[in-house]
From TrEMBL:
It is found in: Cell membrane. This is Biopolymer transporter ExbD. It comes from Rubricoccus marinus. Its main location: membrane. GO terms for molecular function: transmembrane transporter activity. Residues 164-174 have a biased composition (Acidic residues). GO terms for cellular component: plasma membrane.
Length: 193
């Protein structure tokens, strides 16, 4: 009986180089096609953490403008109900008082706006009120930059400032507008409400 030769099967080889190429191309494809969600929020520079042994600075009641917002979105400025649109004018009056009216700040450098909410306040209302507060500071800074330095607004004034240069005279190159009207907003911890 003739001996039949057995065929030996060769193991199938899969080219790892071509598989790596395909994986790499798929990775590039998904990186190009996929949209990555960017986080949205309010840009704010947080103050450094206070040393627990140091007492917070004393602020006279006159220099503090208290703005409270409850869960319903009702705004109280110094204990009186106010429309959100009127906040900007009230904050501007507080910042630019310069000691004239007794219920407002002594000067802009000492003026502080305290903003406190209840925890369940809708985010949109929080942003709306905070925008009005910051808008008041921007309006005052724009006006001052225009009247004192001839700049159409505060941003233009800032763009004209020279870069940090040790050869620049001391009073030149400083942001005199923000020195005159510093942004002092105290964001108090929300109440549980």
């Amino acid at each position: 009986m003739p001996l039949l030769k057995r065929r030996t099967k060769r193991d199938a080889e899969i080219g790892t180089a071509s598989m790596a190429d395909i994986a790499f191309l798929l990775l590039i494809f998904f990186l190009l096609v996929t949209t990555i969600n960017t986080e949205k929020g309010i840009y704010m520079q947080l103050p450094p953490k206070l040393d627990s042994t140091v007492d917070p600075p004393e602020i006279k009641d006159r220099n503090l403008l208290v703005i409270l917002v409850n869960n319903n979105g009702d705004v109280l400025v110094e204990g009186e109900f106010m429309n959100v649109a009127a906040i900007r004018d009230e904050v501007k009056k507080h910042i630019t008082n310069f000691g004239q009216l007794p219920g407002y700040s002594e000067n802009a450098e000492k003026a502080v706006v305290s903003f406190k909410t209840e925890r369940a306040l809708p985010y949109e209302r929080y942003v709306e009120v905070l925008d009005e507060i910051k808008g008041a500071y921007n309006d005052v800074r724009n006006s001052y930059a225009n009247s004192e330095f001839g700049a159409p607004d505060y941003a233009t004034y800032r763009s004209r400032l020279p870069e940090d240069n040790p050869d620049t005279p001391e009073d030149e190159g400083q942001d005199m507008v923000s020195d005159r009207f510093p942004l002092k907003i105290s964001l108090a911890e929300p109440d549980q409400g």
